[in-house]
Structure formats: C-alpha cells, structure tokens
C-alpha cells in the first residue's frame, strides 16, 4: 500500500471523509474550529456542505487528503491559526506572536486504520503548511498517557504521533477532550 497525500481541493473526496451519510444531516464537516461559532450554528444541513465546497475551491484548500490509489482514505484539517477559533481560544494558549498554522483534525476512514495513514496525514499537513509559507505548525492532540482513546474522539490526534513527526511540547492547555487533556505541540518550519 502506497499512501499519497494531496491538497483537499476535490470536494467529493472531502465529502467522503467528513460529510454526512444523509445530505440533510448537521454533522461537523470539520467546520467547528474553522469558522466563528455563530456561523457554525447558522449553517444547517446542505448549507454546511456548500460552505466546504467553497473552501475546496479556495487557495489554499482547507487541508489535505490521503489516498490509497484513487481512494480517499484520510483527512487532515490545516489552516493559518488566525483563520480558526484557536486564534481566540481561552483554553489553548498562544506561545508567541508567530503566524503559525494549526492542524486540528485527523480522520482515517474505518477499514483503513492502523496502516500508518495518520502519520502520512501529519507529514502531509506539515508539508502543506510549509509550502504555503507557515513559519511553524501547531497541533492540539490528546495526551492520553497511553490509555486507549475512543476513535470518534481521537480526531485531535494523539501526542505520541506528533512527537514521532518531530513536534515538541510547547505548552499545556486547559482544554479536555474525551476525558483527556490536550497539549499544544509545535514544529518549527523555518
């Protein structure tokens, strides 16, 4: 199996990874950290997908996709922190004023897990941020202390996977997800 990671500009492939089974459903679409809370609450059903379709046509696209051949098997959301709710977060601190990028969601399709796809997504997101001029990239993974994390709540990533990718612990946070603390991990790209 060879995994290729590419920009998330193909909306149908993004839909496969983060869209709902039912077109009218109000699933996240990986928008909850990307857009202001008010807009996130206003976008309902198909309007959420339409918003993501616009993001896929924009430059830069909203993240990266992992492919096994032509099949989309993974997603990672990555964007300038200033364009996300992390820019205004009270729970996840700013380390400094560097215009860093944020990597906040990693999703691997069921049936494709435990094949290294999340590692490929992290590496692809880092390269995506680097190509788009990011001086550094941050992530806010769970520090589960080796405990098992429910797959639906592991979207933030696991600390050890970011450590393997060269990220270093930059700060503790007051954010908790699925009963586990989140930490701020950072990788300098300069």
UniProtKB/TrEMBL annotation:
CDD domains in the cross-refs: NAT_SF
Domain N-acetyltransferase stretches: 38-190
Domain of life: Bacteria
Protein name (database record): GNAT family N-acetyltransferase
Organism for this UniProt entry: Streptomyces gossypii
Classification of source organism: Bacteria, Bacillati, Actinomycetota, Actinomycetes, Kitasatosporales
């Amino acid at each position: 199996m060879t995994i290729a990671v590419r920009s998330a500009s193909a909306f149908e492939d993004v839909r496969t990874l983060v869209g709902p089974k039912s077109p009218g459903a109000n699933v996240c679409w990986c928008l909850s950290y990307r857009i202001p809370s008010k807009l996130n609450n206003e976008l309902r059903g198909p309007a959420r997908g339409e918003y993501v379709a616009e993001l896929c046509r924009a430059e830069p696209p909203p993240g990266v996709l992992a492919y096994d051949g032509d099949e989309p098997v993974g997603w990672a959301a990555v964007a300038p922190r200033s364009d996300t709710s992390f820019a205004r977060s009270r729970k996840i601190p700013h380390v400094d004023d560097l215009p860093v990028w944020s990597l906040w969601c990693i999703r691997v399709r069921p049936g494709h897990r435990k094949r290294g796809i999340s590692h490929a997504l992290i590496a692809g997101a880092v390269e995506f941020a680097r190509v788009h001029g990011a001086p550094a990239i941050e992530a806010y993974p769970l520090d589960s202390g080796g405990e098992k994390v429910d797959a639906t709540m592991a979207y933030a990533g696991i600390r050890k996977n970011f450590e393997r990718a060269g990220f270093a612990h930059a700060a503790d946070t007051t954010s908790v997800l699925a009963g586990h603390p989140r930490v701020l991990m950072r990788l300098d790209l300069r």
